[in-house]
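pasting for ref
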Amino acid sequence: MRRAAHSCVPPVKGVIFDIHSTLVDQGSASGWLEAALVRAPHPLSVHERAALESFLDLIWEGARISDPESTRDLSFAAHERVFHELLAAGPGVDPALGAALYAVMLDVWHAYDDAIPTLEALQDAGVKVCLLSNAGVPIRTVLDREGLSPLVDAVVLSYEVGCVKPDTRIFQTALDAISCPAGEALMVGDSGRDDSGGTTLGIRTLILPRTSGPVHGLGAVVSLTRPCH
């Protein structure tokens, strides 16, 4: 018996990308600490340094517990306050070093090696791209520095629109920004909790968990936007 032919799913005409840990790698905790120590030299023993690096590597996981509604991503002031509250709960950190850690945080964020090639391929294919982020930091500076800004059609940031993922309102804002129906959009992110909020609108969603290498597997996105035959 022959199987019934399956019709193609609607083509992907718009891709919505999360930024942090999806297109942009936050870097290593050791690199972050090293950059802060250049700005604010402070003696640390080998043990103290190792303990602080381990803490910094997971500091934003702690924010999911202390700030589950992600209110830190609604303003710069709230984000900085939550950071220092988290830091105070970890290994003892000199206030000057704590300030330096926050000041250089975005300096060590860099685009994954496959971010620009993926965005260029989507642009060449005529696929609209919106970046969507829970961000309580001036992340546009990272997008500009890393060469991502010219390759996207829109950027929607939580602190600018007043709501955070997984709230469906912010996903609808992203769809509107690129004039794309939900059924023709693909969301790409690293968080099953935050980035799946658009599924109730009908947005197909691809989760690429955080990786430690320079390549994040973003080429899969290009494959998913190719028309089926």
